[in-house]
Amino acid sequence: MSAREAILAALKVNRPAGDFPLPDVPSFEEAYREPSKLFPERLALMGGTMAALQPGEDWAGLVRRLYPDVRLVCSTVPEVEGTCRITDFATPQEAQYVELGIVRAAFGVAETGSVCLTEAQLGMNAFPHLCEHLLVLLDPAQVLPNIHSAYRRPEIARARYAVLHSGPSATADIQGVMVRGAQGVRSLTVIYV
Amino acid sequence: MSPSSDKSRVDHAGGAELFLERAEHLAFHDRRLWELREKRDQQMHGIPEFQELRELASAIKEHTLAKLPEYLEMFERNALANGIHVHWAQDGEEHNRIVLDILRSRNARTVVKSKSMVTEECDMRPWLQARQVEVLETDVGEQIQQFDDEMPSHIVVPAVHKLVRDVAKTFSQAYGTDDGERDVTQLVAAQRRGTRPVILRADAGMTGANFLVAETGAVVVCTNEGNADLSANVPALHIVSTGIEKLVPRAADLAVFIRLLSRSALGSPITQYTTQFRGPRDGGEMHVILVDNGRATRLGMVDFWRSLKCIRCGACMNTCPVYRRSGGLSYGGVYAGPIGAIIQPTFDPDKFSALPFASTLNGSCTNVCPVKIDIHDQLYKWRRIIAEKHYLPFVKREALRMAGRLMARPKLFRAAMKGGNAVLKGLPRFAIYNWLNPWGRHREVPAPPVETFHDWYLRNRKPQTRDRGQPDKGQPDQGDRR
């Protein structure tokens, strides 16, 4: 008997007797009535920041203002040109020197300040984790109330890779000290546009 | 299994004693874990439906476990359709062999991995290393434990029993940093600098899974450092090791668990990365290994199958006064704390016979469990089995036998209590604090009361009927105390 058959057979014999119905999961969305207003506050709790274009400022100006020391900027959005495109890189190894990544989120989640990134937005799954900083464009109309709303979105059923990215990478593994900027991005900034 | 010598048994009290001697570590450990518990409480109060979510999570898990073969087959079907290779392993050895076969067939010699308790169960790292495969743990805490050649002492924060100076020493050897470094930001930066090139060079990446979704064939991984998303996406080969109990039926069910997991674990609303892998990356290959390793047997244990609901948040550990003061390593197994004390005996009730006794039965673990596992009831049930099967060490066995005899005879018990208290008053310290009383080694035996409760009750309450007594104040205070 294969391991598969043996495991399934044992589970069938050993499963608990009785009726264990699968409950319906409510949406619990009432508490999140104005998602795009709540989102910035929740993003801040996760260590992320919001930014906006200043009057008269263009995208290049915004990038210079927010990231004065950054030279290699890889943009996957039409709004910003950047210094390179993700299609310039054939492998993650080639993309390792990108300092700033600019992407558009599929949607955001107010409850947790998360942005959802999938392979459709990224072009390369590893790309937003290899760079130092991430600038995320988010349509405020695409900010959902909570995690229940997020897992009902079609992207979740469709995407091979989908990450709910909530603030920059972080660790508190060394004596409980919270360090924002662990092994993934050191900063995550969201712009409503 | 026949009772064996005490030598092969995990000596939790002995391990705890070593931990208690390190005063600074103990103080930090106790404070840090209680802080996580307090942050968890803040999150709980932040969403009004928290208790409803716990009910839902428990019901979804019980439903899934009762239909586990069907949901496993559904997951397999959907994962295969998405281009994922699916493997099945009955035990650790079989799991490790599958990993090695996959690696060898792709000529892969270096593996970067993110945290996975299942690979700890399988003791995979040393097994692969003995077969010329280099394995690097990428999670900061797990990597510290690898460098120090220790098991994780906590399922969420693996090196929580260490101080900055311990890590500085470890990293000075691994990364050449100053062993006097006390700036945690610098240590984290050194770990990133040292680990990133290994990830970029690695032939394969391994992750665990927090959840598997049957209807979509998705593997869901919840992490904070970014190391899992790098390990899974940078190398062209991604291998997932997961227990078969990680399933949930639908994506809609997943939402319930995502909302509970990090709130219960670290007291944050969500992990920084909540990632689903539903297929290999472009140009890549993805494998999922479904591991039984005792789970199917546990499902058949009437009193203990509900421990399979566990989502590995560690809340029961953070709240447990015994765990906080004894450290994870004292439990001597892969899983420590209250959840470890009910899971480890399912692997070997004799070896882990001390663990169900590492509890005050205060029930706090059950109160914080996001999937409502009856942890303290299971601890009690394990104690009975262990006593019946004679897995108890001699002193505890004899003491409990005497206590049992006394308590079965109320008159004898009362006489003994009075006599005992009288004796305690008169005894010199050396007669109370000796090897027969391990309890008194780190604690003062409370001063004996002036009179027994029974005497007090007879004097104050006996003649009164119930309705003339003190008004019923309802439930006793259920708040948890440290």
Protein architecture, described:
The complex is a heterodimer of chains A (193) and B (482). Chain A has 193 residues and is α/β, with parallel strands linked by helices. In chain A, 25% of the residues lie in helices and 23% in strands. A 6-stranded parallel sheet of chain A has the order 1-12-7-4-2-3, covered by helices on one side. Chain A has a 4-stranded mixed sheet with strand order 8-5-6-9. Chain A has a two-stranded antiparallel ribbon with strand order 10-11. In chain A, a hairpin with a 7-residue loop joins strand 10 and strand 11 (179-180). The N and C termini of chain A lie far apart (58 Å). Chain B is an alpha/beta fold and 482 residues long. Chain B contains 22 helices and 10 strands. Chain B has helices spanning 12-20, 23-46, 50-66, 68-81, 92-105, 117-121, 124-129, 140-147, 164-175, 184-201, 227-233, 251-265, 295-299, 315-319, 321-326, 337-347, 364-368, 375-388, 394-407, 410-426, 429-432, 453-460; strands spanning 85-89, 110-113, 134-137, 204-207, 211-213, 218-223, 237-243, 247-248, 273-277, 285-291. In chain B, strands 1-10-7-4-2-3 form a 6-stranded parallel sheet, with helices on both faces. A 4-stranded mixed sheet of chain B has the order 8-5-6-9. In chain B, strand 5 (211-213) and strand 6 form a beta hairpin. The two termini of chain B are 37 Å apart. Residues 1-5 and 467-482 of chain B have low confidence and may be disordered. Classes of the chains: A alpha/beta (193), B alpha/beta (482). At the A-B interface, helix 1, helix 6, strand 9 and strand 10 of A face helix 2, helix 3, helix 4, helix 8 and helix 10 of B. Strand 9 of chain A pairs antiparallel with strand 9 of chain B, so a sheet runs across the interface.
